[in-house]
């Protein structure tokens, strides 16, 4: 019974909560800038409005242009079913699901970038090129992080693997390894979701964009799917990272769910703070940051050897 | 079929049928139209018989046949076990499908001179590959190996009027004979240790450590040259790019796999191989994977790109074989099963999606006459069916769910991640191999998004591309079969379980008996379930969108307000891969010819980048050139008259007899 309830809570949160994260980030940034900012629920309003609109589709496009947002949303949603939320197990867990998690993000990337190139616009080509280039470095960091966690927990499935920190990992060195992995995963989260310092979601210069420029030609419901998919991805990666920075289980399901939601929103605040106090990196410096994230995980790996 | 017929006999008959498939076409020069159908029919018949033989093997078990031919040394022995059976599947499938494709792609009407020749060598090459896999004696193996190498040489040289084709086929010939030389040494040492030429023995011990090391090194070099691992891949890109596309499909889908077959066999020779054997293979695999896919990313020629991607995939396979070898050295059955099964599943997978992609390249070349990615564009609309096949092949080759590439890489990841927990030494290799494999996967996405986006999407950059069209049904039918295989093995990877389990059992019976089976180690059910769930969820979102039925109006691409975009303003492939190629420039040594712009009104200028094969151009060819100059004096001995060569041979034999006394 509780299993079913937790499953329902997982799916419901995964479906409903993601757009709120963007609201929190924007509110935080507005607060830093001394503005009042858009309402917390702005993205929900946007999604509803976009879903009602009609669309303009470029004459050069094919079915790939529509498949991009559709497959993108589906893939990140499935990835979200593999990640445990808080102390609860994920709805779907099997040995090796972490590989599927990473490759679902890859599938989303394949079709998002292909859809961008489908328009034949040079701007969108640039965005797609940057996206696949930076992601191939972010993927290394993500898998290095998984290697450290697998070595610490002995599990090949995300649920037991990410719950290992709750059980308490003895000794100072494994804890240090977890800290390094957490930093690396935060960088991966920023990169995968195109946040500052990798990409500036608010920039007005198409030449410097990554994510935003890939979807210039999407409009109406398709654009809504793109925005929603991006929010889900942010939410899923935040839920993943939360296990390392907040490895707490209170024991009461209701309190645990509340703590999870609060934790994810707090991570959104942190992302907002980072965006407020930092500038975007020069594009040519982004690879260094991502390689550094991978190297941090490698150091974490060395710590686990002791 | 009666149960008393040995499956090996069926395979030999099938091979004979395929070997002869091109002969009628060569004899019946008067009736050019008859050659192709007979060749395709005989090839298909032989393949069907061969697959039936595999079914008989699955029911009846391993078998061996010794043909009553007297050789001065060794015997003519053929045998079928689980490992041979697995490698026969791609040989039979790709050969038959490729022959069907070739019937239209390289028809006797368009190529009256070369088509009969090509069909003859096609059949001979397929049959000799079957013989390589079936051979149970070193002499028979080497004969089949040499026949295969020569047939492949003539296939690559089909268009021998073009200098680039001749160059590539010569490089191939030199490479393959270097490999044969290594194998000769390898088998001689093997015969020295075990006392006979029988293959593939399980040695009680490798004699001295030196001899077993030499066997391993020679075997890895000889078979690695055929498989195309870095840095022994030098022959591969040119040969694949310059052969007719269905020949490239056969080369890449099957010929490379005979090298892999040899690697797997060599690693299975010793009961307890040293740990570093596995480490070496993991390292070779990781390097091949990473540099192969980066080189692929940098290519501007569609078929060269696919060829380098074969180097990458062979690297992934080598990593699996390395992991299995590490597992045997450590006595870890789970690593053996996962590593070897992962490698072999990837062998099967790669022999489905790579031929599919080469046939796609064939369609493109057929329709547009160019392999240059930057001259294409817009093919998704002019060749919609070919584009669907391309997307299936590309998603599969990137290892993305729900297609078959994912299942193979899943096994490898599962094995490698388990190995990261092995103390004291296994983790070093595994800890390096996991991120390497991850990066290979992500770079493959970059590479194939590039092809999809530049060659197939956008608008046409040349009039040839604008007027391209899909080929006819006889060229599309083989592609349907290959794409269907990708989807089937992706959604139901457990379909390959019987083949894989018998192959693992044939490789290492003790370990296979003592560890949990593959089906217990890998959640095949979940992979299938997630694939179906993914399809259902995509269908759900698409239905939602269709239900909303948004009015869509067509307009030009919104190029940030620019009103008159032209096809020439689209992003091109070398710009697309510039960041990643820059990251790997220490290995790639890309050349750029950038113009110098001076003054307020600079004149017309051209910018070009090129990524040569650094190993071929900067290492191998200079070395061979130096050797050529160094041995210039010895050329006096080599003037051409046959009687002199007979004299040399006689003198050499006398010398050997003298020394051997």
Summed up:
The complex is a heterodimer of chains A (306) and B (661). Chain A is an all-alpha fold and 306 residues long. Chain A has one domain.
How much strand content do the residues of chain A show?
under 5%
Number of helices of chain B: 28
Tell me the span between the first and last alpha carbons of chain B: 54 Å
Structural class of chain B: mainly alpha
Largest sheet of chain B: 2 strands, antiparallel
Structural class of chain A: mainly alpha
Structure notes:
- The complex is a heterodimer of chains A (306) and B (661).
- Chain A has 306 residues and is an all-alpha fold.
- Chain A has helices spanning 2-16, 18-33, 42-52, 63-82, 97-117, 122-153, 158-167, 172-192, 211-214, 220-245, 253-277, 286-305, and one strand at residues 55-58.
- Chain A has one domain.
- In chain A, 72% of the residues lie in helices and 1% in strands.
- In chain A, α2 (18-33) packs across α10 (220-245), α6 (122-153) runs antiparallel to α8 (172-192) and α8 (172-192) packs antiparallel against α10 (220-245).
- Chain B has helices spanning 7-19, 23-27, 32-60, 82-105, 114-134, 138-156, 163-194, 209-227, 236-242, 245-267, 275-298, 302-330, 333-368, 379-382, 384-397, 404-419, 426-456, 463-466, 473-491, 497-507, 509-514, 518-521, 524-548, 573-576, 578-583, 585-588, 614-630, 642-660; strands at 63-70, 75-80, 552-555, 591-593, 608-610.
- In chain B, the strands form two sheets. In chain B, strands 1-2 form a two-stranded antiparallel sheet.
- Classes of the chains: A mainly alpha (306), B mainly alpha (661).
- Chains A and B meet through β1, α4, α5, α6 and α10 of A and α15, α16, α17, α23 and β3 of B.
Spell out the blueprint of helices and strands.
The complex is a heterodimer of chains A (306) and B (661).
Chain A: H1 2-16, H2 18-33, H3 42-52, E1 55-58, H4 63-82, H5 97-117, H6 122-153, H7 158-167, H8 172-192, H9 211-214, H10 220-245, H11 253-277, H12 286-305
Chain B: H1 7-19, H2 23-27, H3 32-60, E1 63-70, E2 75-80, H4 82-105, H5 114-134, H6 138-156, H7 163-194, H8 209-227, H9 236-242, H10 245-267, H11 275-298, H12 302-330, H13 333-368, H14 379-382, H15 384-397, H16 404-419, H17 426-456, H18 463-466, H19 473-491, H20 497-507, H21 509-514, H22 518-521, H23 524-548, E3 552-555, H24 573-576, H25 578-583, H26 585-588, E4 591-593, E5 608-610, H27 614-630, H28 642-660
Helix pairs in contact in B: 1-3, 1-5, 3-4, 3-5, 4-5, 4-10, 4-13, 4-19, 4-20, 5-6, 5-10, 6-7, 7-8, 7-9, 8-10, 9-10, 9-12, 10-12, 10-13, 11-12, 11-17, 12-13, 12-16, 12-17, 13-15, 13-16, 13-19, 13-20, 15-17, 15-19, 16-17, 16-19
